[in-house]
Amino acid sequence: MLAQNVYVGIAPQVLTYGDYLETITSYDLGYKVDEGTYSYKTTLSGFPVLNESGDLCTKLEGSQTPCPLYGELYSNDRIQITSDYVKGTYRSTAIYRLLNGTDIICVNYEFSIV
User: Fold this and answer.
1) Per-residue pLDDT tens for 52-69?
2) What is the reported pLDDT for 33?
3) Which residues, in sequence order, are bridge partners of residue 113?
4) Strand-strand pairing, 88-97 and 37-44
5) Are 110 and 93 in contact (CB under 8 A)?
6) Which helix (H) or strand (E) holds 59?
7) Measured between alpha carbons, how far is residue 18 from residues 43, 50, 82, 86 in Å?
8) Distance between CA 58 and CA 9 in Å, rounded?
9) Alpha-carbon torsion (9, 50, 69, 101), positive or negative
10) Which of 43, 99, 109, 111 is the most exposed place for a label (fewest CB within 10 A)?
């Protein structure tokens, strides 16, 4: 993995409807990335609910960390948990890769809605 000094935070890990889920990701990247792929996968109590992949820089366009990725990178996302979300345990994985298959970063999140 190319990323160094990786920090992944999620709070709170147990939520109810109306709560806000906050995720923080920071890492250092000494390699300039201007192309690659991403993969997002999420399961709910073991059942797949999201399986998405595509062009990394297109996905990050307009985000807190657009391409090219380089240096100290930081993102902070906050979403409100509404009744649209099914109760259970969510496990998510996000992987960014170079076109040659080398992992840039891989992060895992887990939270529950009760």
Assistant:
1) 999 999 999 999 999 999
2) 97
3) 15, 88
4) antiparallel
5) no
6) helix 56-60
7) 21, 22, 6, 13
8) 25
9) positive
10) 99
Peptide bond into 68 cis (omega under 30): yes
Question: Which tokens sit at 24?
Answer: 């923080």
Determine contact, residues 96/54, Cβ cutoff 8 Å. no
- Euclidean distance between CA atoms 114 and 84, whole angstroms: 13
> How many domains does the chain divide into?
1
Do the strands 4-11 and 47-55 form a parallel or antiparallel pair, or are they unpaired? unpaired
Please, how many CA atoms are within 13 Å of residue 94, restricted to the half-sphere of its CB? 10
- Average pLDDT of the chain to the nearest whole number: 97
Q: List the domain range (segments joined by +) for residue 95.
A: 4-113
Q: What CATH number should be reported for the domain holding residue 21?
A: 2.60.40.770
